[in-house]
Amino acid sequence: MKKASLILLLLSCSVIVFGQSKIDSALYKKLGAMFKEDQKWRIESAKLYNNQKSDYDRATVDKNWAIADKLNQDEAKNILTKYGYPGYSLVGESGSSKFWAIVQHCDDDIPFQQKVLLLMKKEVDRKNASGEDYAYLKDRVLTNLGQKQLYGTQGILNPKTKKWAPLPIINPTEVEARRKAMGMISLKQYIKEINTGN
């Protein structure tokens, strides 16, 4: 009995190791570096916006932010061409989400974002990418095109009340069902959480 248990344990460990060996560690590290640069200038910008101490002035932040986004966008296109959408099986959940975040910030190239959406949807359907990430990107593209969104992820902060509210939503009575299908919290809870942080 002990021998059988040991064999099963060894087999399960082999499966775990085998599963992990599929992760492209070089690509994962590249995505980590890209994401770090993506976030660095956004964090510095937020510090300046909130009158907090930053090692950079506004001009330096804005310049480096634009450079980082352009470099990341070019590299994201190369990655998409070479690998398709990098899902969990290629770079793990964390790596896949980092790629999504970079694409989310490619607002000056909506056709590229749309191309990513098509490939990403296939991976979401295979449970190989995040439905929630997909919903955010879908809404981002729709609102950038001047259309109503599906999931209510994109919104605007009222400068007077300091309260966030979603931009217009297609068939708002169905938004909760759409969000649930993507594994998201309710829109009501989402709005509450955003406004608690403001």
Main sheet record: 2 strands, antiparallel
Poorly predicted ranges: 1-21
Order of helices and strands: HHHHHHEEHH
Name the overall outline.
Answer: globular
- Indicate the percent of residues in helices: 55-70%
Count of discrete domains: 2
Strand order of the largest sheet: 1-2
| Classification by helices and strands | mainly alpha
Radius of gyration: 20 Å
Number of helices: 8
Query: How widely separated are the two ends?
Result: 58 Å
Mean pLDDT: 89
Approximately what portion of the residues adopt beta-strand conformation? Answer: under 5%
- Strands, total number: 2
Polypeptide structure, described:
Keywords: Signal. With 198 residues, this protein is mainly alpha-helical. It folds into 2 domains: 107 residues; 43 residues, no CATH class. It is 69% helix and 3% strand. The protein contains 8 helices and 2 strands; from the N terminus they run ααααααββαα. The chain has a two-stranded antiparallel ribbon. α4 packs parallel to α6 and α5 packs antiparallel against α6. The longest helix has 26 residues. It is globular. The termini are far apart. The N terminus is likely disordered.
List the helices and strands and how they pair.
Blueprint: H1 2-21, H2 25-49, H3 58-83, H4 88-104, H5 110-125, H6 131-144, E1 155-157, E2 164-166, H7 175-181, H8 187-197
Antiparallel strand pairs: 1-2
Helix pairs in contact: 2-3, 2-4, 4-6, 5-6
Using brief descriptors, characterize the structure shown.
198 residues, 69% helix, single chain, DUF6624, globular, disordered N terminus, mainly alpha, signal, two-stranded antiparallel sheet, 2 domains, 3% strand
